[in-house]
Amino acid sequence: GDLVELFEAVRALSRLGEDVLVYPDAEEFLAQALHSHRMSALVAEIRRDPSAHSLRRDLLKADLLPYQLDGIAFAAGAGRAVLADEMGLGKTIQGVGVAELLARQSGIARVLVVCPASLKSQWRAEIGRFCGREVQLVSGKSAERNAQYMGGAFFTVCNYEQVLRDFLDIERSKWDLIILDEAQRIKNWEAKTSRIIKGLRSPFALVLTGTPLENRLDDLYSVVEFIDPMRLGPAYRFINRHRVASETGKVLGYKNLDALRAHLKPVLLRRTRASVAQELPRRTTDIVRVTPTDEQLQLHGAQMQVVQTITRKAFLTEMDLLRLQKALLLARMSANSTALVDKQLPGYSTKLERVGELLESLCAEPARKIILFSEWTSMLDLIEPLLKRAKAAFVRLDGSVPQKHRSRLVAAFQSDAKCRAFLTTNAGSTGLNLQAADTVINLELPWNPALLEQRIARAHRMGQKRPVQVYLMITENTIEENLLATLSAKHELAAAVLDPDSELREVQLASGIEELKRRLEALLGAKPEGSPDVSMQRRAEADALALAQRKERVSEAGGQLLAAAFSFLGEILPAGGSAAPAPQAVAALRAGLAECVETAEDGKLRLAVTLPGMQSLDALAAALAKLMAARESGIGGEAGAA
User: Fold this and answer.
1) What percent of the chain shows pLDDT beyond 90?
2) Do 187 and 217 touch, CB atoms closer than 8 A?
3) What is the Cα–Cα distance from 112 to 202, expressed in whole angstroms?
């Protein structure tokens, strides 16, 4: 009330022609207070009963859970806030919701999202899914990035490293709202990244982090300082007020935490899975998209070229199917890491980087238990160091573990609170009860949708008392994206030859090949054929007929040429001193050649042979040309002698 009266007094003085000097920091404080006052009625209305409010269904293109709408209202009302919900509660959708609500209520038009590089594609996908506003991912060279910051997109998404390089370009742009995702990146208040990020200016700010306080109270101080540098006071005063230290400076504990909570209450909101368990669905699925490295794309592209070549063939042999299966397998492996394909460690993999970040966030929650599935033991080998880095104990079950030892691993995971993760291949997708887990991470998608359900059912089953969070890791611009589409459409896997776990022992090519090609076309993103153009079809048929007639003429001429060449060879071979060929040898050769001869419908004979390559054709052409030249010179010599 006092602030509103102050603002009205300043406005009245200005109308009277009086000069009123308002310093920038006071102006920012006044603007924020007025915003909170203006939003207070709407925020109170939403937070009174978020489950019944119309914005649950009207704000975004998806129904919000009550606690999510409550978080959006809290952050939008505060103007500058920290949303510190536990992992898996939907902080991204709340971030998009805050931007949308501020656009409607305060007219904001430009939002900068700063996140880890591995999350940029995820933000673009979520924005498209939830609100459909224009989004620009910052990439490319310096001049290109500069133009992207200055562009007109509602959302601009960059990563922390780009802020360090492009700070001046970012600073020149006017941002209405800045969102920091995974903001524990600025927990060290003395680090260069933290100092640069805190130099960014905007009227509204939102910090998203599931772990605002990881190891020290100083971490929380640094995160809060971004949204309000005055709230917790100077660093030295904050440390003296809340830290308990020995005479040597060793931190023994923290104090006055009730006062700290009171200071933070207006700007920080944290909900745990336990606190909103009644609102959570029993199972939620997050699709985590990552952008591959150039090295991954190169390996993937080479394998998909093999796939394209094979699928263009009119008829597929058993060997073609084996080559096809191997190429698809290597393409899927490259989407995980190049090390799975070329065996060169450490390899290139953005998926591993993202999984590492995800595991650190999840393992920071004491009660979280995780099952990680991968089809390949080599991928699990790469995951183990990530869990060790997160200081999380784990067990591992794959095909090499004897059946009698598996129950011991399951018991350790189920009963030991310190055992945080269960690593397994598809060997653990059936027959295991792992209700201690509330999180399932699929490091890649299986061919068969039923197998994916079997994996999730290890945790999402009778006896599970907590909501289950499922993560599907998808590498963009790879076969995984199209595989996701075919899984979501619930296509039955008729072409079981593609499934590495299939027990199929034979392939009925005549009946199954069309279904195989249809599925591959779906995976390769082939466009459906439109209605045929009659004139184009006739022209194509005429061209095909002309080509066939030309091949026929070339075939006949080639036959005549070969016959003449072999006849000539018979004439020029020296007769003196050489025995005539044995009739049995001639008969045997003729019988062998006869097996290569086909009789066409017109009664003509065709000799079919297989050449090892185009080089053989070149050599044959050169040899025939020499024979022709020798024959002509021989004829010319005979004529001269005559």
Assistant:
1) 32
2) no
3) 9
Please name the residues in contact with 577: beta carbons below 8 A apart, sequence gap of 6 or more.
none
Q: Which two tokens stand for residue 470?
A: 């499922």
CA 56 – CA 94 distance, rounded (Å) = 11
| 537 burial level (CB within 10 Å; 0-12, 13-18, 19+) | exposed
Identity of the amino acid at 26 = A
What pLDDT sits at residue 543? 57
Whole-model pTM over 0.85: no
Under 8 Å between Cβ of 320 and 309: no
Two tokens, residue 254: 């923290």
User: Alpha-carbon distance 196 to 255, whole Å?
Assistant: 30
Q: Which residue has the tokens 């500069």?
A: 146
Kindly state the average pLDDT of the residues 263-274.
85
Kind plus residue range of the DSSP H or E element containing 615: helix 614-641
Which residue did the predictor score with more confidence, 594 or 637? 594
Candidates 370, 292, 395; CA nearest to 336 is: 292
Helical H segments across 59-215, by residue range: 66-78, 91-106, 120-130, 142-149, 160-172, 192-197
Residue 486's nearest CA partner among 459, 441, 526 is 526
DSSP-assigned letters across all residues of 475-526: ETTSHHHHHHHHHHTT-----GGG-TT-------HHHHHHHHHHHHHHHHTP
DSSP 395: E
In 179-243, which residue ranges form alpha helices assigned H by DSSP? 192-197, 217-227, 235-242
pLDDT tens readout for residues 588-628: 556 555 555 555 545 556 665 555 555 655 666 666 566 56
pLDDT bucket at 505, cuts 50 / 70 / 90: very low
In single-letter form, the type of residue at position 339 comes to A
How many CB atoms are closer than 10 A to CB 499? 15
Q: Phi and psi for 384 in degrees, rounded to 5?
A: -55, -45
User: What are 432-478's pLDDT values in tens digits?
Assistant: 778 889 999 999 988 777 678 778 888 887 667 788 899 999 998 89
List alpha helices for 573-610, DSSP H: 583-594
